[in-house]
Amino acid sequence: MITGQQIYKHLGLKAHDSLPGVYVGWQQILCNWIEACGNTKVGRTINASSISRARSQGGADWWFDSYFILPDKEATYEVERIFKNTMKPYNFTVLEGKKLLQGQTELYYLYPWEATEKIKILLDGFKFDFKSRYPDFEIIDIVKEMTHLVIDEDGNKRRKLVGENEWIGVGYIENHPSYRYR
Fold it and tell me: Which H helix or E strand runs over 142?
């Protein structure tokens, strides 16, 4: 899909510029010719570029499936809080019945596109009165604005950057066997 650096380049931002938002993403690693993807992560940040760099440590690639730009840091906290409460049944720690060793609370048993749809519903007004406080702010998913869906030669849905012919990284493709069902 998309990296934080690609988002910043598209928007003409510098690496340390603020871009408050909520995101859906995952880590991917290629090891000994085996491709594996981590659980879907849903979180908040004020800098997509920093998230991308931090999550890519240890040889894993970090991909954003969606990145919804919000007006300020406070809005990111509110959306994340409501999402966590609403999606508690899908939370990795709840389903496993134990605390993860590293204290992760942002991992979900959802496909990335499922988590993205749930955030869209939340932002469209379901349990979140966003529009009354920020009437002139338009919420956009910058990843979807930057890409278009294409059917590849094997019949899989994949994304390409608008105006370019190359696939975006390795990224996931819908129904790809490496993205295991949760």
Answer: helix 142-146
